[in-house]
């Protein structure tokens, strides 16, 4: 059982048919299983992202998370599922939390297009009481192996 984390860089797209979404969630296993069962989702990995200063707090772990949030990185095929579809799933299943930085409710954007889509989706869901911060994505660190596909094991 690995006790350390490693940076998880974005992999180059295969024939420009892959994109990524980074979404913090207060429960690794549940959303990972939901996304893994969705057509167009290529892969998911759980980890830690959203640090205000990744150089000050490198290599977070479940026990030493500092100002990172527990997150899921979703790799998807935009010809089968759009980023807006991914966000819609996020808003449908996510219950906003104010239980501190580790479990904060946010969307971590990897591009200006993602930020624009997130802002639009946020307006739609605000009336339902789902208040979510929109932040730029920071380094993503893969969580310990025992967290990966936890509910699928």
Topology:
Elements: E1 6-7, E2 19-24, H1 29-36, E3 41-49, E4 69-76, H2 83-93, E5 106-109, H3 112-126, E6 133-136, E7 141-142
Parallel strand pairs: 5-6
Antiparallel strand pairs: 1-7, 2-4, 3-4, 3-7
Helix pairs in contact: 2-3
Question: What would you say about this model in short?
Answer:
This protein is of the alpha+beta class and 153 residues long. Helix 2 runs parallel beside helix 3.
Structure description:
- The chain has 153 residues and is of the alpha+beta class.
- 22% of the residues lie in helices and 23% in strands.
- It has three helices and seven strands, in the order ββαββαβαββ.
- It has a five-stranded antiparallel beta sheet, covered by helices on one side. A two-stranded parallel ribbon has the order 5-6.
- Helix 2 runs parallel beside helix 3.
- 34% of the residues are buried.
Please, what is the average pLDDT?
80
User: Using DSSP, what is the number of strands?
Assistant: 7
Assembly level: single chain
Order of strands, widest sheet = 1-7-3-4-2
Low-pLDDT residue intervals, each spanning 5 or more residues: none
Primary descriptors:
two-stranded parallel sheet; globular; 153 residues; single chain; alpha+beta
